[in-house]
Every structure is written in C-alpha cells, then in structure tokens.
Amino acid sequence: MPPAPVFKRVLLKVSGEALMGGESFGISPQVLDYVADELIKAHRLGVEVGVVLGGGNIFRGVSDSARHMDRVQADYMGMLATVVNSIALQDALERKGVPTRVMTAITMPQVAEPYIRRRAIRHLEKGRIVILGAGTGNPYFSTDTAAALRAEEIGAEVLMKATKVDGIYDSDPVKNPEAQKLPQVTYDQVLAQHLKVMDATAISLAGDNKLPVIVFDLLEPDNIKRVLLGEKVGSRVEV
Ligand code: UDP
Fold it and tell me: Which residues bind ATP (predicted)?
C-alpha cells in the first residue's frame, strides 16, 4: 500500500516572490508549472488543499513603488495582484486536468466566485483545489494573515508555508553563514525573537488557535508531498 497522508485538509501559502523564479517581476511560467505539479502530487494523495498566494511578485502595498500612495489604495492593488496570481495558478492546474475554484475576498463575479466559507469547504470535499484570492479583503493585512485566517475557517489541520528557505533560522541564512536552523519553535519564540516566519499578526492568529505552521523550501521537489506524509521537512511552529 502507498504511504498514507497524515493530514486530511491543509492550507498552503506560497509567496508571490516565489512565483517570480529567476525573473525580476511577474510570474515565471516554469515556476508556475512546477507549483502546479507539486500541488497535483498532494491532490493525488487525496488531501484537501486550499491555497493562498501572495502578490509580492506584482505589487506590495508597503513597497518602494507605493511609498507616495495612499496605503489603502496601495493595499487594494496588492490584493488584486494576488488575484492575478490565483488565476494563473488555476489555469496551470486546469491545463493539467485538475479541478479548481478561485474564490476571492473582494467580489468580482466575472472573474471568480466570492469567498463563502461553507462553499469553499464544499469544493474541498468534492476534491477541488481551492485557491483563495484577494487576501483577507482588508488593507493593512498580509497574505500570511489571510492564510492563517482561511486555514482556521476551513478547518485545515496545518498551515504549510512554502518559501525560498528550508525552514526557520535564528538569523538570516543568506546574510549570516553561521545562522542555525531551528527545527521546532513556539509561537511566543517567533514573536519574542523576531524570527522571520510570518508577520506578527499572522503568527498571533495561528498561535491563538494552536494552528501548527510548517515552513519549508518550495523549490525542493516533493517537499509538499513529504510534509503531507508526515516526514520531517523544514521547521515547525507549535505550542
Ligand atoms: N494585502 C492586503 N490585505 C490582505 C492581503 C494582502 O492589503 O489581506 C496587500 C498588501 O498590500 C500586500 C499585498 O497585498 O503587500 C501582497 O501580499 P503579500 O505582501 O502578503 O504577498 P507576498 O509577500 O506573500 O508575496
């Protein structure tokens, strides 16, 4: 018998920046294809998967290019950027024959379904990969917070944060060759030591609800599948 997954329903967060691959802006078709393939491996295990994508590859409300803008306007642009990414991922998945739904926190019915929690759960139960766009729908939040929020709402057992590093470090491993990887940390430790996992709002929300967070390298093939099979991949944030 093939190994069985340890989770039934998960929420995967992929940053917009990861979708850029080697490009300086926008979406790399190769990375998009790769993410779709990795998600299909999860889908084949029978795990119900919700996905939240960032928008940093297109626009961030707090970026330099937005510094003269009204923050709220800039954040709406950022949220729309996540919808652009969501549609791109939907297209990549459906070209490969996997059923999906995009649901957005800001309604745009010509483009995607509105996010309605009970419908999202129904789609998951029917085996569709559900891509949740437009963040929380509110300015001043991040897509990490959207991921923690949606994970709780849809009853995901874990928030899987796929990033460019292979876990949580005590300092930035890109800048500090002595940086130590921390296989397991608590929510309080992340907040107290300012560990670069997710922003404080997202970590607090996850911590308040005891939602485990697993941080791992997106670009290591099979990592999503390995996390789902319960292998020790990346770092975990738990109580
Ligand atoms: N954003 C927002 N509210 C949300 C989620 C996102 O206003 O609930 C905006 C915010 O401007 C943010 C941008 O969308 O900078 C893109 O999201 P994020 O920076 O989290 O993307 P990532 O860093 O994961 O690519």
Answer: 13-16, 56, 60, 163, 169, 172
Q: How far apart are CA 77 and CA 48, in angstroms?
A: 29
Single pTM value for the model: 0.97
Ligand 1, atom nearest to 13 Cα = 24
Structure confidence by residue, pLDDT tens digits, 147-157 = 999 999 999 99
- Between CA 141 and CA 146, with CA 144 as vertex, the angle to 5 degrees is 65
Predicted-complex ipTM score: 0.98
The atom of ligand 1 lying closest to the CA of 17 is 25
Burial of 3 (0-12, 13-18, 19+ CB in 10 A): exposed
Q: Which ranges constitute the DSSP H helices of the chain?
A: 16-20, 29-44, 71-95, 117-125, 143-154, 187-192, 200-208, 223-228
CA–CA separation, 150 vs 92, rounded Å? Answer: 22
If you measure from the C-alpha of residue 109 to the centroid of ligand 1, how many angstroms do you get, rounded to a whole number? 21
Q: What separation in Å is there between the alpha carbon of 98 and the centre of ligand 1? A: 26
> Is residue 151 classed exposed, middle or buried when 0-12, 13-18 and 19+ CB atoms within 10 A define those classes?
buried
| Rounded Cα–Cα distance for residues 230 and 207 (Å) | 21
Phi-psi region of 50 (alpha: psi -120 to 50; beta: other; left: phi over 0): beta
What is the token pair recorded at 71? 């923050």
Nearest to 107 by CA among 116, 99, 94: 116
Per DSSP, the three-state class of 106 is coil
Q: Is the domain covering 9-238 a CATH 3.40.30.10 domain?
A: no
